[in-house]
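Re: beginner question about structure tokens

> Can someone show what the tokenized structure looks like for a real chain? I only ever see the sequence side.

Sure, here's an example I had lying around. Input first:
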Amino acid sequence: MLEVLDDQCWGIVGRNGSGKSTLAAQIASDSVNSALVSLELEDGLLERELQEDDTDFIDKIDTGRTVRELILEVGQDRDIETLVTELGLVELLDRGFRVLSTGERRRLMIARALIQEPSILVLDEPFDGLDVEFQQQLREFLSALNVRMIIATNRLSDLDGLATHFLCVDNREVVLRGERAEIEANATFQQLMTLPEGEIKLPEVIRDDVLRLGPLIEMKSVTVIHSGREILSRLDWIVDRGENWKISGPNGCGKSTLVNLVTGDHPQCYSNDVVVFGMQRGSGESIWDVKKHIGIVSPLLHSQYRVGVNSLSVVVSGFYDSVGIYRSPQPEHVELAKQWLDIMNMADCAHQAFRSLSFGQQRLVLIARALVKGPQLLILDEPCQGLDRLNRALVLKVLDQIVMAGKTQLIYITHEAEDHLECVTHELRLGDASG
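And the corresponding structure tokens:
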């Protein structure tokens, strides 16, 4: 049992799959008057909201329980006004859960924990999905709280100004514990956090389709309105051949909406002037005509991938742009999927159930799924969310190597300045959202 003194904040650190989240959840379970914030709890809340979606039975889109309802269902005894103001949730109080951005959901989960007034607050990846400005605001907010804290994270910089002590976990065991400076200087810790040098041998691309000449993406005066709120306003954007874009901006500004317009997963792509691979949206092309050229990773895809298949099947499904496999895969596709799992250091998990993996391990499998077919365009929406320092470095290294070799073009959505890619040539920064 970990004892956390009043002047201490413990950080739980380690590789993906090492057991950080399991340990955080166990500490919360064993502690009196504790509250846990985790990606798994957020995922469970989303699952409940999806199961209770009544859109098919009412005359409007059911956006789920509101932020206000979700906070008050776990704590009725405290005035929420101060809490939601500090967490930037005031403008979101009457917004449904299913239309919140990733960062907005993360803030909601923190509010649900704090309204319970815990004596111990256990946070598992609290900064993932938050824009840079709110990360700093949250860090200042947490440092001022009069509550003992334990923070499990893959990004050591998340703990700056917060953690005084570290628990280092490997293979589901605590291998190091002590003051932060002492652990960071430890040789075992440094070895766990070091990526081997040298280029990575990548598989050959299987690609038998040829795209038309011209820009990959063209958008003219694109406007998206949802629930009376303008998400994008008269946006003009062109992605020409050879260009690789980074898209940034605060939570709720429309980054993921922009991605869904490209892939055809947003219904308003057909009411706007959107051309992808030379095909005008709404001109008779199918969604699969476009998706077959694209490899994608996104929080939406991650939350939707709920079928009971193993990790190898998830990667193979990238050839068919499906969630799960509904046909017998070709042997060469299976072999390529194995190679990509190996590159992501996930070969040992090939036959393990996808949903049994840690969040970070699941994200590595989905990245392999996006890369496996050698797509003409990679659209990666916060792909490094949930990844530890080494796996983040590995993914960025692989992307730079692929893109700079001219094997694909990249659209990369991120909040993180640390996610630096040499291959990026252009940046689109979307403006502040209203809330």
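Each token stands for a local structural state, so reading them left to right follows the chain. The radius of gyration is 22 Å.
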